Amino acid sequence: MGFVREISDDLRSRVYARDQGRCRLCGQQAFRVVRIEGTATTPENLRVLCYECGLARPAERLPVGGPDPAEVAAAIDRRIAAPEPERPCDEPGWDWRGYRRTHLRPASSRGYAR
CB 16: neighbour CB atoms within 10 A? Predict the structure, then answer.
């Protein structure tokens, strides 16, 4: 695990005072001091949050959604309808073992045996 910079009690008190003990997101009574981004412990990178906003904070970092299913389906349809294979694996009867033998290093040269 990486190095975690502690927020000193003095700095924590100054950030609480600066934000008047109120959550920077919703204005409720503050619960904790958190970093806005990265690991810097400068006052500009710190804010106070209430309990609810503090719980919701990790969810801010989660990726939302994924590829659009309609776009994925359209890409598959384009590959199926293409007059020429777009990728070697689209070719009927494509020999992936032969491709591996001619284009990739053997497993034994990568430091492990099959």
Answer: 16
